[in-house]
Amino acid sequence: MPSVFELINMNLCLKRILLIGQLAGLICLTPGLVSYGTTRCQASERGQDEKNGTAVDESKWIPLFNGQNLDGWTVKIAGHPVGENFANTFRVENGILKCEYDDYGPFNRQFGHLYSNLTYSNYKLRLQYRFVGRMLPDAPKYVDLNSGVMLHSQSPQSMRLDQGFPASLEMQFLAGLGNGKRQTGNVCTPGTHLNFEGELTKKHIVKSTGPTLSADQWVSVEMEVHGHDLIIYRVEGKEVLRYRFPVLDPESDEAKGILALGAESKLAYGHIALQAEAQRVWFRNIELLPLSE
Predict the structure, then answer these.
(1) Which residues are 222's β-sheet partners?
(2) Is residue 17 located within the same domain as residue 87?
(3) Confidence (pTM)
(4) Quick check: is 240 in a domain?
(5) What is the CA radius of gyration of the chain?
(6) Distance (Å, whole) CA 253 – CA 125
(7) How many C-beta atoms surround the C-beta of residue 199 within 10 A?
(8) Distance set, CA 37 to CA 18, 27, 43, 48 (Å)
(9) Is residue 241 part of a domain?
(10) pLDDT in tens, 218-250
(11) Which residues are CB-contacts of 178 (< 8 A; sequence separation ≥ 6)?
(12) Which phi and psi (to 5°) does residue 291 adopt?
């Protein structure tokens, strides 16, 4: 049986332990008291944010569009030389990058894209898009309320004069036509193949789990790109699709030419390109966050 002195010592130790616990809780709950206390309390939440793909430090996002002009971008429209912005297709008005067709006559399959001058491999890309009006009347029906952004794209300089689409991986933007489901956030694969759910697929379109949205709204999308290994699409902050290991399709018209010139089959980097395919569409807040490999 413990002596009186041993019992007193045990009681003092217990009080010290309780006091230390109370002080630790005070440090954690009192902003600015001790900086590492706040960091420790928030570590779990921050880790969950990173797991969910949420940007922790907004200052690290880089604007790719300056809101004033097309600096940093190059136009390529089918049937026209690199750099010719035919009919002022891509223009900037009131801080918005617009794809417009008011100076067109017949469309004549003059599909176009606006390419980043730089190439990228590991990054997050976010932007907002909005459809305006409907497609040109002589365009293919599938382009109605349809646009997108191309990832790991070939360069505009490597495209044939009449080439409509670059070898790339598209995050497809769609809006509902009033006749059923038409989800946004699919992947389209001009000149490419990819691995979806553990298997190589040669489908031109792999459908997402994205929502069917009305055309009269700004939609926020994000693409998380890890080189050749993994690409994730998000719509309004929610993941809608992921795929892996994209490669060039040696049988496609888009990829044959660049493969013959020595392009690597494995797609791990490329240009970013905004699409113009006979549907008016506006873009804004185009930003990129570099990621480590």
Answers:
(1) 126, 234
(2) no
(3) 0.81
(4) yes
(5) 26
(6) 28
(7) 7
(8) 18, 6, 10, 18
(9) yes
(10) 999 999 999 999 999 999 999 999 999 999 999
(11) none
(12) -120, 150
Structural domain boundaries enclosing 207: 58-290
Q: What is the DSSP string of the chain?
A: ---HHHHHHHHHHHHHHHHHHHHHHHHHHSTTS-HHHHHHHHHHHHHHHHHTT--S-GGG-EES--SSS-TTEEEEETTS-TT--GGG-EEEETTEEEE--TT-S--TT--EEEEESS-BSEEEEEEEEEE-S---TTS-GGGTTEEEEEEEEPPGGGS-TT--S-SSEEEEEE---SSS---S-EEE-TTEEEEETTEEE--SEE--SPPP--SSS-EEEEEEEETTTEEEEEETTEEEEEEEEEEE-TTSHHHHHHHHTT--SB---BEEEEEESSS-EEEEEEEEEE---
Show the tokens assigned to 124: 């997050």
Are 177 and 34 in the same domain?
no
Mean pLDDT of 193-215: 97
Rounded to whole angstroms, the Cα distance separating 258 from 280 reads 30
Tokens of 247: 């490669």
Name the pLDDT band for 56 (thresholds 50, 70, 90).
Answer: low
Task: Provide the greatest CA pair distance for the chain.
Answer: 102
